[in-house]
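Question: does this match?
>
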Amino acid sequence: MTDLHKLEPLTFPLQGQQLIEASAGTGKTYTITALYLRLLLGQGDLTDKPLGPDQILVVTFTEAATEELRDRIRQKIVDARAAFLDPDFDGDELLKAIKAKCSDPLQAAKLLEQAARQMDEASIFTIHGFCQRMLKRHAFESGALFDNELTQDDLSLIRGAVLDFWRNNIYGLSAPLAEVVAQCWKSPEQLLMDIRGILSRAGLQLQPDLGHLDLQEAYDLRQDVILRFKQNWLQNEENLFDLIQNSGVNKRSYSKASLTKWLEQVDQYATSEQREPDKKLLLVLQRFTQSML
């Protein structure tokens, strides 16, 4: 594991890959402005050559943070220039230390004055803003369109896709199947609420993959299965109680009272016009599956 060291803005290495860990309120913006100032003055351990604002990339998360950084860096440059021009400067300790490392204060002041004028060209972006800029600048290499737009909130796009799916796949269903769908999702908004949390998961797969399945055809086949089940149940209902009681099932799990009640519930379903069993009845039906028995 890499050793951790307290960050010192004046000596922090500005070459290679460096990781700074900081929680809220620990002076991240202050540190960034200090490192930025070092790079402007050629104190960055890169080539000891001063860099311009257009050569230093700063990337952050929000537009507000971007503007704050730009303002704080511009102000730090102004303050540093004043410090270099003042032979008796005795203010900010950081500026005093940076000034002490500079062999030519007047030349440093000129660099800072030039940097202040170039701050409108400073490469300080949000992450999405930087990505958009690079896609436009390298459109041919990336194969991206020139008029690409990056969105920070994809909810409207996902909602549009769900609405399209609902129109294309749900509106045309038969009334019985639409009722089954409505038991799960009464509207596209409810469907969106259920799937929103999993869409960002990497490597998401549907198992089993039913993408090739026609929903209406699958429903019709299921109705045939349900009809055959009801017919078979009614043909054998008189034998089921004795058959189960005389088998090796656990008599505590399948007591006479419980078994009688469950058989009556399935009898009522088998003789009714009800198509899909409800959740309560599904639990009863499971008790008569081979695996449960």
Notes: The longest strand covers residues 57-60. The radius of gyration is 35 Å. The longest helix spans residues 215-245. DSSP finds twelve helices and two strands in the chain.
